[in-house]
Design goal:
Blueprint: H1 2-20, H2 24-60, H3 66-111, H4 117-125, H5 129-138, H6 143-224
Keywords: Coiled coil, Membrane, Transmembrane, Transmembrane helix
Family: Belongs to the syntaxin family.
Protein name: t-SNARE
């Protein structure tokens, strides 16, 4: 999981580069690195999820006892650590989404300063956003800036689409981790209940034994008398 954390930190750095780069070459390089890092991180998170599931399955086959309980505790620690990593990744993507949207809005207003919030939203989010933007470009008297802004918004539109896809995958992964944690909690509860039952049985057994010993002693005294 250390590699996942390093990747998330690297993705955060690349987000900053993507937002701050002004020339197209640097921006394209940052986006290519982002795509590669996101793909690698997705493979790592899925592999980690599957590894935890396999550990759960292996532990479930162990006989009840101290070793099984220790293994369950260790797996629980890994699940919680994994969940925190996914939460961090979600925060990184959410922040990038907000900043990317804000930058795209600024670029659109270069072309159409009088645009309403609804027009800006449509230009950035809709699949027909490029058509909307091109129409605004025709009506603009700032063609030099506007063409650069058009390319910028096209790039940000694609970025927003990728961010939405990543966040959807992370939401599903987060739900799966939560399910694993809940299942383990139920298993631990069953173990604790079994331990309590065993302890109760032991106490009852001890009480019965004590009563039996006492009764035997009384009976022996009566015979002696």
């Amino acid at each position: 999981m250390r590699q996942i954390e390093q990747n998330v930190n690297r993705i955060s750095e690349l987000h900053s580069r993507s937002l701050n780069n002004m020339d197209e070459a640097s921006s394209a390089q940052a986006h290519a690195q982002l795509d590669q890092m996101a793909e690698e991180t997705s493979r790592l998170t899925n592999a980690t999820k599957n590894r935890i599931r396999n550990l759960d399955a292996q532990t479930a086959r162990l006989p009840e006892g101290g070793e099984k309980n220790v293994r369950k505790t260790q797996i629980g620690v890994q699940k919680n650590a994994f969940k925190e990593l996914v939460q961090k990744y979600v925060r990184v993507e959410s922040e990038y989404k907000s900043k990317t949207r804000a930058r795209a809005e600024r670029q659109y207003r270069i072309v159409n300063p009088q645009a309403t919030p609804q027009e800006v939203k449509a230009a950035i989010e809709d699949d027909n956003g490029q058509q909307i933007f091109s129409q605004a470009l025709l009506n603009s008297n700032r063609h030099g800036e506007a063409r650069g802004a058009l390319r910028e918004v096209q790039t940000r539109h694609e970025e927003l689409r990728k961010i939405e896809q990543t966040m959807t995958e992370l939401a599903q992964l987060f739900q799966e981790i939560d399910t694993l944690i809940v299942e383990q909690g139920e298993q631990i509860g069953q173990i604790e209940n079994s331990a309590m039952v065993a302890e109760t049985d032991m106490k009852q057994g001890t009480e019965h034994t004590t009563k039996a010993v006492t009764s035997a002693r009384k009976a022996r005294k009566k015979r002696i008398m």
